[in-house]
Write a structure and sequence with these properties.
With 547 residues, this protein is mainly alpha-helical. Among the domains are: 139 residues, Response regulator (Rossmann fold); 97 residues, Alpha Horseshoe (Serine Threonine Protein Phosphatase 5, Tetratricopeptide repeat). The protein is 69% helix and 5% strand. Helix 4 links the parallel strand 3 and strand 4. Helix 7 runs antiparallel to helix 8 and helix 26 packs antiparallel against helix 27. The longest helix has 26 residues. Pfam families: Response_reg (PF00072), TPR_16 (PF13432), TPR_7 (PF13176). It comes from Marinobacter lipolyticus SM19. Keywords: Phosphoprotein, TPR repeat.
């Protein structure tokens, strides 16, 4: 390096604000001296996460050098995650992870939040100066663009990118990627897609494939999006963003089981991404794979210990999943799952004492856990304050109310549960998602194992009906209704098969009487129910068939 180059580097370092985060004082002092030798002047030293985040909240920082391992508490990944989430780092700021650890688990976890680079210990001045000089040079060259992006002035940022492309060939890849991202941000998919396509014609770059897949998803070209993302993962199995998008694509195709499998594969590669575990837990719950859901919620809770994304909802969801798993299981596994649910919910109450709603919500789930273990006196006792709250005029939000109704069903208090759900349906009549949850619980007010059995009977009944085996269809639907007698679709399925049998030459009046009985079960079906029109149609048809 020439004297002129050294002077230029020194000037660059001298204009920037540095933050060093490391729990060893000697290392902090050593890095500070190296930075001073490079020309840096404004350098702040902190030992742990809390003062680091606080400093960034009140001070502009250009370069962060953060050790990954910081002793007990938050690590470097947690700091980066929090700074990104709270938007305490400008796009022009540089974050370098410093570590003696090079395990794939650490690197993959940290990479989820996109540090600008890594420095592996031991570090000397030459290494530090070389690594930072290149990053700072790029930072300075692209500063005007990043400033406009920070201001969310995307049209101006686009103009600056276009102007820089012929002038800054060294940063062409960064400019093209940023330009495509900006077009995507402003909804100009055609220009973004053209950039991705042009780039891929010259070179197979992962970010261009990912961007193309994202646009295909947003424009509802699910089949093509899934193909593109699968090819990306085959070529670059560590490109984690592709797994998330592929799972989304499969889910939107109506293939949630495959979407779950994709996320499970992603977690094998990068096991420390809290938000991915959370998404996996939700998918597994929707798929009625409660064992996988409880594992994913358990990991979400564990990873949340030092994460900005920690939430009482994670604890509640784990408690609910364990409640479902333990229900009706008096064996050792069931008891362990029930005990774990109670422990998790108690931990939640202590961890989030400022949330006044949590003790009540916790009691609702705990009562269901006790009921599932046939400890009914304990369930009724712990539920007493919840009843008092309702008696005193308290109105539950939709999720709490539905959860309470679920517990009432488990305790055999069906009338109370149905009354509460009726009130919730009126209060949230303009919220389709909430009405759907209410409807599902009314149809299947049983534990998840019974739900799975009833759904299996229903599937087999539909297959038998479609193949023309009416007797088998009647048997399957009847078995399902023994589990969930009020299920609207199942009752109507059976009515439809009985009518078909009647019209196929078996003019047995008892068949029509059975139809009448099953339709009478649905006499109070609300108009908002998705099966209501079908109920009216079959009722009308039956009247026309009656002698």
């Amino acid at each position: 390096m020439t004297n002129s180059d050294r002077s230029s580097v020194g000037n660059s370092f001298g204009k920037l604000n540095f933050l060093i985060i490391d729990d060893f004082e000697n290392f902090r002092l050593s890095i500070r001296q190296m930075l001073r030798d490079c020309g840096a002047d404004k350098i702040e030293l902190v030992a742990h996460a809390a003062p680091a985040v606080q400093y960034c909240a009140y001070n502009h920082v250009d370069v962060v050098l953060c050790d990954y391992n910081l002793g007990d508490g938050k690590n470097g990944q947690h700091i980066l995650e929090e700074l990104r989430h709270k938007k305490l780092l400008k796009r022009s700021s540089l974050f370098l992870m410093v570590t003696a650890e090079t395990s794939k688990e650490m690197v993959m976890g940290a990479r989820e939040y996109q540090p600008d680079g890594y420095l592996t210990k031991p570090i000397n001045r030459a290494m530090l100066e070389k690594r930072l000089s290149g990053l700072i040079a790029q930072r300075n060259a692209l500063l005007p663009i990043n400033r406009e992006i920070d201001r969310e002035n995307y049209p101006e940022a686009i103009s600056l990118c276009l102007a820089a492309l012929p002038k800054q060939p060294r940063y062409k890849t960064w400019l093209l990627k940023t330009l495509a991202d900006l077009y995507y941000q402003v909804g100009d998919y055609s220009h973004a897609l053209k950039i991705y396509t042009d780039v891929l014609e010259q070179r197979d770059l992962s970010w261009a494939r990912l961007g193309r897949g994202k646009i295909l998803l947003d424009t509802r070209n699910f089949d093509e999006a899934v193909t593109v993302l699968r090819e990306l993962i085959d070529k670059h199995p560590d490109y984690m963003e592709a797994y998330d998008l592929l799972a989304e694509g499969l889910d939107r195709q109506g293939r949630p089981t495959q979407a779950q499998q994709v996320l499970e594969k992603a977690i094998e590669h990068s096991p420390n991404a809290l938000l991915r575990h959370k998404q996996l837990a939700r998918l597994a719950t929707d798929n009625q794979d409660i064992a996988a859901a409880s594992d994913a919620w358990r990991k979400t809770v564990s990873l949340g210990t030092h994460s900005i994304h920690d939430s009482p909802e994670h604890y509640l969801s784990l408690g609910q999943a364990l409640s479902d798993l333990s229900e009706g299981d008096s064996g050792e596994d069931g008891k362990q799952q029930a005990d774990e649910a109670i422990t998790v919910l108690s931990r939640m109450e202590k961890r989030f004492p400022e949330d006044e709603n949590l003790p009540l919500r916790s009691r609702i789930v705990k009562a269901r856990v006790y009921a599932g273990q046939d400890r009914l006196k304990e369930a009724e006792h712990i539920l007493e304050p919840v009843r008092e709250s309702l008696a005193n005029g308290r109105e539950f939000d939709a999720d709490t109310g539905i959860d309470y109704a679920k517990t009432l069903f488990r305790l055999g208090r069906e009338d109370e549960a149905k009354h509460l759900l009726g009130q919730l349906a009126q209060r949230y009549s303009d919220e389709p998602d909430t009405l759907q949850k209410i409807e599902n619980l009314l149809d299947e007010p049983v534990g998840f194992r019974q739900k799975l059995q009833a759904r299996a009977y229903n599937r087999d009944g539909i297959k038998a009906f479609e193949s023309g085996d009416l007797e088998a269809a009647i048997s399957e639907f009847t078995n399902a209704l023994k589990i969930v007698p009020a299920h609207a679709a199942l009752n109507l399925n059976l009515v439809q098969v009985l009518m078909k049998k009647y019209t196929c030459g078996q003019n047995d009046p008892q068949l029509l009487e059975l139809c009448q009985q099953h339709l009478e079960r649905l006499s109070s079906l609300p108009e908002q129910h998705r099966q209501y029109r079908r109920y009216l149609a079959l009722n009308k048809k039956l009247k026309g068939m009656m002698p």
